[in-house]
Amino acid sequence: MSGTHALIIVIAAIFTNNILLSNFLGMCSFLACSRQLETAVGLGVAVTFVMTCTTVLNYLIYHYVLVPQGIDHLTFIVFIAVIAAFVQFVEMFVERFSPKLYYALGIFLPLITVNCAILGAALFMVIRNYTFLQTAGFGVGAGLGWALAIILMAGLRKKMGYSNIPRPFQGVAITMIVTGVMALAFMGFAGMVSIQ
Amino acid sequence: MSFLLPVVVLTGLFLALAGGLIVAERVLINYGICQIDINAGGRALEVDGGQTLLSALYGEEIFIPSACGGRGACSYCKVTVLSGGGPVLPTETPYLTRKEVRSGARLACQVKVREDIELRIPEELLNVKLFSATVERTISVTHDIKEVRLALLEPEEISHQPGQYAQVRAPSPDGPVFRAYSISSPVYEPRVVELIVRLVPGGIGSTYLHNVQEGDTVTFTGPFGEFRLNEDPQVEIVCVGGGCGMAPMRNIIYSLYERWPERACWLFFGCRTTQDIFYLDEYEQLAREHPNFRVIYALSDPLEPGEQWDGETGFIHLSVDKHLEAGVKRQAFLCGPPPMIEAVTRVLEEKGLRPDDIFYDKF
């Protein structure tokens, strides 16, 4: 584990171990916000940013506060609080300095608080015993992977808008099926690099 | 003492996070004083930036109607923003038509004051006042509906139209919120306001109004609402209510017969069971005094064993369909849950009413 280069982890987190397609984390916002390409891109960027920062932040808190004090059983609650506070902070920051981006992201910023992929990434960082650099790489990679998946799905859903889908499959049902097919396709990357 | 450490560390961490956020809020959310211009120079305000337009206007005693307490759920607080205020937010789009977006309509509770804003507000909203009143009496009219009678203190009189509503201020853990209730007392009693309140489990406004005691002071703003009674005595009035959608009807009917004793009017009221029936005796008395007033209650649930009911049964739109003949000039006022409004609107349009003559309050 400790030997894997951070850059390899970035690639692996995007393709072979895509957090959405191999772990099925962050499905709710994935399904809800993949209808339009622009919102998918906006949310993807926001998730990538928040995921990178919170995983690093949580790494520091975990290794320099929780573990030394022997209270790592509180990991969950601390991670969730850090993520929520960070999203709030980002929201204020973006609102002040880039109203344009703020309006573009709109309600997606607060939605990220409850995106389980972000908590998932922080917990993987703990389970897999990443070093600091590996954590940063994993945060970036997992975020980019999630963004890639939602952007691909938005593109596919745009195409599906023109196709003749049987009624029972319309909406979320076909999206779930397509997500499954996409996950299968991503398994083709499996031999490329390994996160383990 | 091992349990103390996690508590201390956790508290410390959370305090640090909260402190960081508070500092960030102080530093980042500081927009200084912003100018609000209303109706092209009609009124100019200076307010603190960073708050929502709704609360900024409220602070200046301009009472924009709002039933949901600023959560962007009722769309009552529509105003026209001519400049400033940023683009339309995703939280607003469900409530605005394309035409409204083009003309600058926004939900005041969602617009944040970050820069100078030019606004357009209907003149009558500038006349809305803040009233304080004492609770004169409360009566339980059914198991979950209370009639609350308020005697006005300051100002002493309210001038309202039948079908209009007031916004009652109710305390909540996050500060006072406003909830809309139709005024059920007739317009010829300007010194009192009666409300009919059904207890909604967990509801802030209804819990508050169900617990006020005689002599308590209640604050509300009003009157709001666009319903205007047709002044032509030849036009029949049709009132259709369900659940606790009785308040506006009561005001309309009593105000109507005070002014036009011979005018034709129908009241259809849908209840679930015999326990939900209220005011029926009073309306039957009124119907004896005014032969052109017809009152029809319908029960939608099957009767319990041993109960007596000789009125209509089934959903209320079926009774409307059965009793009204087509082709009479009418104006209708509906108040009740959305499925009822939709079903009754369909029936009334089949009977020849124009959509412009059908007013409704959905809740």
Explained architecture:
The complex is a heterodimer of chains A (196) and B (363). Chain A is built from 9 helices and no strands. Chain A has 196 residues and is mainly α. Chain A has one domain (6-187). In chain A, helix 1 (6-14) packs parallel to helix 8 (132-160) and helix 4 (75-97) packs across helix 7. The mean pLDDT of chain A is 87. With 363 residues, chain B is α/β, with parallel strands linked by helices. Chain B has 3 domains: 33-125, Ubiquitin-like (UB roll) (Roll); 128-224, Elongation Factor Tu (Ef-tu), domain 3 (Beta Barrel); 236-362, Rossmann fold (3-Layer(aba) Sandwich), CATH 3.40.50.80. In chain B, 26% of the residues lie in helices and 30% in strands. Chain B contains 9 helices and 17 strands. Chain B has helices spanning 4-28, 53-59, 98-103, 123-126, 204-211, 247-259, 280-289, 316-323, 338-350; strands at residues 33-38, 43-48, 78-83, 105-107, 117-120, 129-140, 145-154, 165-170, 177-182, 192-198, 217-224, 236-242, 265-271, 293-299, 312-313, 330-336, 358-362. In chain B, strands 9-8-11-6-7-10 form a 6-stranded antiparallel beta sheet, covered by helices on one side. In chain B, helix 8 (316-323) packs parallel to helix 9 (338-350). Chain B is globular and about 70 Å long. The mean pLDDT of chain B is 87. The interface between A and B is medium-sized, with 23 and 20 residues.
